[in-house]
């Protein structure tokens, strides 16, 4: 317990100093020997502090030349794990997630229409084209469907929305649902309209269309009345994260 407390204090000091030094993701936090000398702590305490930060997604530990503790940006999937644990403890359901998305995403989409860059618009339009192309491929469609919401969140130029919305989308994926190709086509076309409204800077239309898009998922109640009341289980979300991280590790370097 004492070592854990020391490690937590070191972790806070490391992050506070990183902010003061203006470090950004990709920057080296410092060599182990330098950090040991600077903080005057035992190697075990420093390494535990770094493990704590790594678990939070704040640093990445790399091996080899040029490795060590590298500043990182916590990913939505990691935030999803924390939120899923909270929901499981409070008996949250898929309905809980969709209600939160319905409250947040229309405003997020309006911001995206105001703040989007040409590059972000291009990415959104390409994503909708992929959705139409992949409507017969369930796995590819669901991947691009989630990516669309991630792209809108990024275009909102709000750091919290860009983390929270993809995390909520990730948790929705853990519950899972299926659509036939005709429904997927309808979803893809509606998302195309949202992307076009964002391109045109039409905040009202973009917001209204996103609101209808999220609310449409409540149609699940008709097909499967109990689906929206399925509990969110942390283990399910965490398992998705492990698979995602493994697929990223297995992906060939570009």
Automatic annotation (TrEMBL):
The keyword Transcription regulation is annotated on this UniProt entry: yes
Record-linked SMART domains: FCD
Superkingdom as given in the UniProt entry: Bacteria
InterPro entries noted in UniProt: GntR_C, TF_FadR/GntR_C, Tscrpt_reg_HTH_GntR, WH-like_DNA-bd_sf, WH_DNA-bd_sf
Domain HTH gntR-type: 4-73
Single Gene Ontology MF annotation: DNA binding
Keywords, ordered alphabetically: DNA-binding, Transcription, Transcription regulation
Entry keyword annotation includes Metal-binding: no
Protein's name in the database: FadR family transcriptional regulator
UniProt organism field: Actinomadura bangladeshensis
């Amino acid at each position: 317990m004492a070592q854990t407390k020391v490690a937590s204090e070191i972790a806070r000091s490391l992050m506070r100093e990183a902010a003061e030094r203006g470090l950004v993701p990709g920057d080296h936090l410092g060599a182990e020997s330098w950090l040991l000398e600077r903080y005057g702590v035992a190697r075990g305490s420093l390494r535990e502090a770094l493990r704590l930060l790594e678990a939070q997604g704040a640093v990445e530990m790399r091996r080899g030349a040029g490795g060590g503790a590298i500043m990182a940006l916590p990913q939505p999937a990691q935030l999803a794990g924390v939120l899923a644990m909270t929901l499981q403890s409070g008996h949250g359901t898929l309905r809980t997630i969709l209600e939160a998305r319905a409250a947040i995403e229309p405003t997020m989409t309006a911001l995206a229409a105001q703040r989007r860059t040409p590059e972000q618009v291009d990415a959104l339009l390409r994503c909708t084209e992929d959705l139409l192309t992949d409507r017969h491929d369930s796995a590819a469609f669901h991947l691009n469907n989630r990516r669309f919401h991630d792209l809108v969140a990024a275009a909102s130029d709000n750091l919290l929305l860009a983390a929270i919305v993809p995390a909520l989308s990730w948790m929705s994926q853990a519950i899972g649902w299926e659509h036939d190709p005709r429904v997927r086509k309808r979803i893809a076309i509606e998302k195309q309209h949202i992307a076009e409204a964002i391109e045109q800077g039409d905040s009202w239309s973009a917001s209204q269309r996103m609101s209808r898009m999220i609310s449409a998922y409540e149609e699940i109640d008709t097909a499967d009345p109990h689906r929206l009341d399925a509990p969110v289980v942390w283990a399910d979300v965490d398992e998705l994260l492990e698979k995602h991280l493994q697929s990223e590790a297995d992906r060939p370097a570009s």
